[in-house]
Amino acid sequence: MCVERGTKKKLSDLETPTALNKQFTPDESIPLVYHMHGDANHPPSMVLTHRDYLDFVTYLSKEIDTRLPSVIRRALSGTIYLSGHNYTSDTSSLIVMNGTTNKMISESLFRSAEFPNLYPNPKTNMIYLVSSFSDYESELIAFNGTTNKVMEHIELKKSPSDVSFDPMNNAIYVLSADYDEIPPSNYITAIDGTTNKIIKDFPLYGIADLRAIDVNPDTSMIYLLSSSSESMSAINGTQLLAER
């Protein structure tokens, strides 16, 4: 574990976890980034495999009061979601942990060829995971944060790269690419946030190599970042959904 505050600082550079509490109070202007799953510069600290995650959860449940600074413990006082991947069996997991009692609530296993990305929707208390098996086979898993149950496996016909939410229209947008087309074309797959059903795949003609998507929750504007041209495009989400 390590701390970043302007310049990198290892937790070991501080005397104790309480030293961090006295030295630093995070806010919006100076946030705290705390590497819960280890530092790539210190490989033994990394949490990578399914077994690592189980050991990690067990470790936190026993040592969280002495190992984590209070400012971090307060941030983790709600429900904690941990995603993990086992590369030997091509399975991934979503671990739900109670941030107050530090006990595991549930664990859901599913098939995936790579580490799953996790996207929480705070408005609906749904958590979405992108599970990819290949460039041509992937799905979006809808997990109910209230019941801690998998609600839906949404088959994606395109290869996903990023996910964002539109609270004004209660829609989920999956940025994806179709590798059957040459060159690959980008799409926004719009999903209904209530039914978890696909509304439509909207093609994004003339915009290449899109890598990231984000939505302004107050205006429903969708912003797309291109890696090749280092440019950003804007689309009105309300108008886009009107074209369904």
Judged by helices, strands and strand pairing, the structural class is alpha+beta
Give the C-alpha Rg.
20 Å
**Parts with pLDDT < 50 across at least 5 consecutive residues:** 1-19
Q: How helix-rich are the residues, as a percent range? A: 10-25%
> Going across the major beta sheet, what is the strand order?
7-8-9-10
Number of helices: 4
- Report the β-strand fraction as a percent range: over 45%
Number of strands: 17
Q: Identify the overall geometry.
A: globular
Round the mean pLDDT to the nearest integer and report it.
77
- Largest sheet entry: 4 strands, antiparallel
Give the topology string: H per helix, E per strand. EEHEHHEEEEEEEEEEEEEEH
Ends distance: 46 Å
Commentary on this structure:
By secondary structure, this protein is α+β, with helices and mostly antiparallel strands. It has helices at residues 17-23, 50-67, 70-75, 237-242; strands at residues 2-5, 7-10, 33-34, 79-86, 91-98, 104-111, 117-121, 126-134, 137-144, 149-156, 159-166, 171-178, 185-192, 198-203, 210-215, 221-226, 232-236. The chain has a four-stranded antiparallel β-sheet, with no helix packed on it. The protein has a four-stranded antiparallel β-sheet with strand order 11-12-13-14. A hairpin with a 5-residue loop joins strand 13 (185-192) and strand 14 (198-203). The longest helix is centred in the first third of the chain and has 18 residues, at 50-67.
Question: How does the SSE layout of this entry go?
Answer:
Elements: E1 2-5, E2 7-10, H1 17-23, E3 33-34, H2 50-67, H3 70-75, E4 79-86, E5 91-98, E6 104-111, E7 117-121, E8 126-134, E9 137-144, E10 149-156, E11 159-166, E12 171-178, E13 185-192, E14 198-203, E15 210-215, E16 221-226, E17 232-236, H4 237-242
Antiparallel strand pairs: 1-2, 1-3, 4-5, 5-6, 7-8, 8-9, 9-10, 11-12, 12-13, 13-14, 15-16, 16-17
